[in-house]
Amino acid sequence: MSSNVIHLLRPRAQRPSSLGLGFYVRVGRNDHIEMMNLIAAGERGIFGFVIDAHNVDRHRELITEAQRRDFDVILDPKTQPMGFPNGNTESLAAMPWGLERHHNVTDFDGAEGQRRAAQIVEFAATNGFTQILGPTHVLSGANDPWLRRDIVMMNWTGDRIASSGTDIGLIYSLALPIRVLRQSADRRAVIAAISDARCDAIWLKVENFGDHATGEKMAAYIDACRDFHERGVPVVGDHVGGLPGLGVLAFGAVGGIAHGVTLQQTFKTSHWRQPRGSQVGGVTWRVYVPQLDMLLKPRVAEKLLGTSPRIKALCGCRDTHCCPHGVRDMIDRPARHAMYQRAREVERLSATPQSMRAGRYLNESVRRVSDVVACVAAMAAMDEELQQSLRKKQVEVSRLRETIAHLVDGVNTASFALTPPRREAGQGDK
Question: Which residues are within 8 A (CB) of 144 and not within 5 positions of it... i.e. 6 or more apart?
Answer without folding.
Answer: none
